[in-house]
Specification:
The complex is a heterodimer of chains A (164) and B (266).
Chain A lengths: L1 E7 L2 E7 L5 H8 L18 E4 L2 E4 L5 H4 L3 E3 L12 H8 L9 H14 L6 H7 L10 H24 L1
Chain B lengths: L4 E4 L3 H10 L3 E4 L5 H6 L7 E4 L9 E4 L2 E5 L4 H6 L1 H6 L1 H8 L4 H6 L2 H7 L6 H7 L3 E4 L3 E3 H4 E3 L2 E2 L7 E7 L3 E8 L6 E10 L2 E7 L7 E2 L1 H9 L24 H20 L1
Parallel strand pairs in B: 1-3, 2-3
Antiparallel strand pairs in B: 4-5, 5-10, 6-7, 6-10, 8-9, 11-12, 12-13, 13-14
Amino acid sequence: MSDVSLVVNGRKVSGSVEDRTLLVHFLRENLGLTGTHVGCDTSQCGACVVHVDGKAVKSCTILAVQASGSEVVTIEGLANGAELHPVQAAFKEHHGLQCGFCTPGMIMSATDMIRRHPEGLDEATVRAELEGNICRCTGYHNIVKAVLAASKTMSKSKGKAKAA
Amino acid sequence: MYSLNYHRASSVADAVKLQKKGEDAKFVSGGMTLIPAMKSRLAAPSDLVDLAHIAEMKGIKVSGKTVTIGGGTTHAEVATDAKLKAVCPALSYLASHIGDPHVRHKGTIGGSIANNDPAADYPAAMLALGATIITNKREIAADKFFTGLFETALKDGEIVTGVSFTAPAQAAYEKFRNPASRYAIVGVFVAKGKDGVRVAVTGAGDEGVFRAKGMEAALTKSFVPASLDGLAIPASGLMSDMHASAEYRSSLITVMAKRAVAKASA
């Protein structure tokens, strides 16, 4: 057993877990943050993507103890109260989901992708960058549309912030 | 996953000490291969010694044409480092095509080299670049480092702390990848340095990564794709699996090598 301390969605949390506990299970079972999903269990599908110290990682492929001391953001940490994060709003607007199971991972990947591409995104880049996220409804077209729209919205609001 | 004991190392010396304590302790860096193997119970180390927090194993240094990369440097860091891209864009390209963005945020060059998966990308680059693999005990030439499938010259308690190489005048990597895993079905790294051309092939060999010396000789004479016309690695020493037969891999090696030469010359 090891003690794990994290800052999750801005809140300090800690717990004592078996060393073999995966971060995704710590988030879901110890913290009740069930927005992060386990889709494949083979590190391929990306439904479990969260941000650890600002970078998208697969929470099913990292032990909770490995992440101890880090800042974690999950899908629950994106919205500002009732106001959706621009990526969440774009997925809603462009119907970037069908069954919705992969959506938390898609949105966490998309926010990471937009952060890494401040110059803006094109369709080919979005499709290549989504390699680590599988949608079994195969609803990729609208997911790509949503990511592109969110990227535009976010660069506009950034420009405004700079102008102000 | 079976039960295990986790230890976080603060330095290379600390990691060596911690590893000695465990009955069957393994080093973990990004864990992008080891953790999935443990989840599926293909690996069951008694202890994990985490190298990810060792500052001395991180970072990229470029001094003239000499490149040194810390073993704990992630694929994402190698892919995006501006100084490295300026002297050896082929390696940046290679790193940017390993796995997917999430894997690249965690996986490290040292881990990939130490694991020596027969379909991993970095071993081909190390071999073609004539790199030196640096461990906590010694320096090993890439030619002597990769010894077989998942086998290397590393001894118990030895850690890949970094790699170094001289950036070649021209180089390129071309990969025909498995569409699901992104691993190479065939990957060819071609480098033209001052001592001639080196060609390394990953994903295809029965014994893991290897150099295509016939191709090297032909390309040292004339560094153009046409030099490889009629040259093929015999299928007899290549892997056959559900993804590709040995004959198909043999054909792919020549095609990827030609593409790499064309790209390196562009």
